From TrEMBL:
<protein>
    <recommendedName>
        <fullName>Bifunctional protein FolD</fullName>
        <ecNumber>1.5.1.5</ecNumber>
        <ecNumber>3.5.4.9</ecNumber>
    </recommendedName>
</protein>
<feature type="domain" description="Tetrahydrofolate dehydrogenase/cyclohydrolase NAD(P)-binding">
    <location>
        <begin position="141"/>
        <end position="288"/>
    </location>
</feature>
<keyword id="KW-0554">One-carbon metabolism</keyword>
<dbReference type="GO" id="GO:0000105">
    <property type="term" value="P:L-histidine biosynthetic process"/>
</dbReference>
<dbReference type="Pfam" id="PF00763">
    <property type="entry name" value="THF_DHG_CYH"/>
</dbReference>
<comment type="similarity">
    <text>Belongs to the tetrahydrofolate dehydrogenase/cyclohydrolase family.</text>
</comment>
<dbReference type="InterPro" id="IPR046346">
    <property type="entry name" value="Aminoacid_DH-like_N_sf"/>
</dbReference>
<keyword id="KW-0028">Amino-acid biosynthesis</keyword>
<keyword id="KW-0511">Multifunctional enzyme</keyword>
<comment type="pathway">
    <text>One-carbon metabolism; tetrahydrofolate interconversion.</text>
</comment>
<dbReference type="InterPro" id="IPR036291">
    <property type="entry name" value="NAD(P)-bd_dom_sf"/>
</dbReference>
<feature type="domain" description="Tetrahydrofolate dehydrogenase/cyclohydrolase catalytic">
    <location>
        <begin position="5"/>
        <end position="120"/>
    </location>
</feature>
<keyword id="KW-0560">Oxidoreductase</keyword>
<feature type="binding site">
    <location>
        <begin position="168"/>
        <end position="170"/>
    </location>
    <ligand>
        <name>NADP(+)</name>
    </ligand>
</feature>
<dbReference type="InterPro" id="IPR000672">
    <property type="entry name" value="THF_DH/CycHdrlase"/>
</dbReference>
<dbReference type="GO" id="GO:0035999">
    <property type="term" value="P:tetrahydrofolate interconversion"/>
</dbReference>
<dbReference type="GO" id="GO:0005829">
    <property type="term" value="C:cytosol"/>
</dbReference>
Length: 299
């Protein structure tokens, strides 16, 4: 059976380190890192995420600010808030929780965030830096950054010679994940909905990353024996066995069968999920270091 990669424990490690480095920064007379989280509307899932981000920021010792805005907030008003946060020296990271209401152009909002405060890593400048290998100053999207840390825990930092297959090509997960693996010297293939014979391609992967959004699509016999399997998917499916109307979370990988083939595998929940918030904290700390003229810490 595969080693189970404990994302919860790695995420706790990251948060612990961020907390210690924040104390050190403050002890050296620098300002504490500041994170502003902006949420528009009442989407319950978004409210849970945002509350968790703000709570973890406080736990890290950050200056934590939250703007909770009504769904009818205008694009203009939101742009003004972003502009003010861009200009605020106490803020190092700005996160706008997605999705935004339909009347607001999310792309425009994201591109208005100052690149050096774009701790979600979605601004074109940060996308370009990752694509060109400028990793010293790039902000990398939190979910692929966290996935990469989990891969490194199993395989080390230099992945020379390994074949990686990333299933999914979104701007938030698939593409940045592929760029990170390339930067670590993997031979990378990106698969998507038009890929032919995905099972055969997946079987070539020493590192297989699933970021699809389809419950348990990747079967055990798609996994090369000994492969490292990173399951980014979070899918809620009905679980009548738990009672009427109940549901449970599963990944994009059929976990039980894949675990019989893989060398190491992330569970869902408890794998990649907890890493996302931890890496948001790491990115905000990195932004504060860079703003203070210091070399960013590595994780
Ligand atoms: P997305 O934007 O919907 O992208 C899904 C990708 O999967 C697309 O590139 C799509 O291909 C590809 N795909 C769809 N069906 C496929 C098939 N049958 N065969 C091969 N590829 C297929 O999703 P996302 O935002 O990247 O998220 C992916 C999953 O990760 C979701 O379950 C999401 O909930 C989860 N997620 C988790 C976290 C976390 O914190 N752990 C964060 C973000 C996302 P095309 O491009 O050809 O359409």
């Amino acid at each position: 059976m595969a080693e189970v990669i404990d994302g919860k424990s790695v995420a706790e490690d990251v948060v612990r380190t961020v907390k210690a480095l924040t104390s050190e920064l403050v002890a050296n007379g620098k300002a504490k890192p500041g994170l502003a989280v902006v949420i528009v509307g009442e989407d319950p899932a978004s409210q849970v995420y945002v509350a968790s981000k703000s709570r973890t920021a406080k736990e890290c010792g950050f200056h934590s600010l939250q703007h909770t805005l009504p769904a009818e907030t205008s694009e203009e008003a939101l742009l003004k808030i972003i502009g003010d946060l861009n200009a605020d020296p106490a803020i190092n990271g700005i996160l706008v929780q997605l999705p935004l209401p339909a009347h607001i152009d999310a792309g425009k909002i994201i591109q208005t965030i100052a690149p050096e405060k774009d701790v979600d890593g979605f601004h074109f400048i940060n996308v370009g830096k990752l694509g060109t290998g400028e990793l010293e100053t790039a902000f990398v999207p939190c979910t692929p950054a966290g996935s990469m840390l989990l891969i490194e825990r199993v395989r080390g930092k230099d992945l020379s010679g390994l074949n990686a297959v990333v299933v999914g090509r979104s701007n938030i997960v698939g593409k940045p994940m592929a760029n990170l693996l390339l930067a670590a010297n993997c031979t990378v293939t990106i698969a998507h909905s038009r890929t032919k014979d995905l099972p055969a391609l997946a079987r070539t992967a020493d590192i297989l990353v699933a970021a699809v959004g389809r419950p348990e699509m990747i079967k055990g016999d798609w996994v090369k024996p000994g492969a490292t399997v990173i399951d980014v998917g979070i899918n809620r499916i009905p679980a009548p066995e738990k009672g009427e109307g109940k549901s449970r979370l599963v990944g994009d990988v059929a976990y039980a069968e894949a675990a019989r083939q893989a060398g190491a595998i992330t569970p869902v929940p408890g794998g990649v999920g907890p890493m996302t918030i931890a890496m948001l904290m790491a990115n905000t700390l990195a932004s504060a270091y860079l703003a203070a003229g210091l070399k960013r810490p590595s994780f």
